[in-house]
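Structure representation.

___
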Amino acid sequence: MTLQELKYVVAVAETRNFRRAAERVFVSQPSLSASVKKLEDELGVRLFERGPREVLLTEAGEQVVAQARRVLDEAARVREVARHGRDPLRGVLRLGVIHTIAPYLLPGLVLALRGAAPAMPLEIEENMTASLDQMLRGGLMDVAILALPYEAPGVEVLPLYDEVFRVVVPARHPWARRRAVKAEELAGENLLLLSIGHCFREQVMEACGEFARPAPPGRQGNSLETIRNMVASGLGVSVLPATALTGRHASPLVRAVDFAAPAPMRRVVAAFRADFPRRAAVQAMARAVSRLDLPVNPS
C-alpha cells in the first residue's frame, strides 16, 4: 500500500469515474485502474462497484476512502512541518484571539507582522477561551492569545503583556471628575458585565467580589463595545481593560477613571502546543506585540 495508491482511490471516489480520476492525478487510466485493483487485492475487499456509467463505493470502500483521506492529510502535514522547519516565518499561522483582546490588539499586530514576517499571513479565529482551548489542543489552531489564568496539558504559554483595568462611567456621572475609585465603591452602582462565558467577566467579578450576584436582565453585553455603548447611554458603569481605552476607541459620552491602588489587571499570553515546530513564529509574533504602542506593561 502506498500513498500514491491511496491518492488514486480518493480520486476515483470523488469523481466516480476512472477516466476523470486518471486525468485528475495525471496518469493513464490503465495505470490507475491497475493500481486500484492491486490495492483491492492487497486489502482483500472490493472498494468500488464498477458500473457502465458510474463507479460507486462499497460499504468497505467508504471506510477505506475516509481513512485514506486522513492519511493523505497527515502526509501533507508532514511536508508542511518540514517546510516550516526550513523557514518557520513562511506559511499561514492559525491564530486564535479572545473577544476582549482581538479588536484592540489585532490591527496593530497585523500591520507589524506584515513588515516583520510578510510571508506569514494570519488565519484568525476570534472566540471564547474554552473554544480556543479545544481548537488549540485539537491541532486546529497554532497559537491562541488569551488571558491568564489558563493551563492545559501539553500547552506552553509565552507572556506578552500586563494591562490594568479601569472604571468607565457616563460623562455626567459624579465619578467622571475623580482621579481614582476604590473597587468596593462599585458595590452601590449598576455594574454592566459581559455575558457568562467570557473570561473577562470572571476577572472583573474576582477583582470586585461584591458582584458575585447575577446581573439583572438586559444588563449584560456580548462585547466590550456593547458595554461601552450602554455606559454611554447612561445605563450604568463598567470596567474595561486599558487597551480598550486608547484614543481611537474614545467616546465623548464616556469617562475612564483609574482604580485606586492596587488596580486589578490581567496578564495576556500566547499559548501554543509544546510540540509546535514553529516556535520562531510565536517568538516573532511576541516581538511584534512588544513593539506596539499599547497602554500595557511588558510581562
The mean pLDDT is 87. The first helix runs from residue 3 to 15. The CA atoms of residues 1 and 42 lie 8 Å apart.
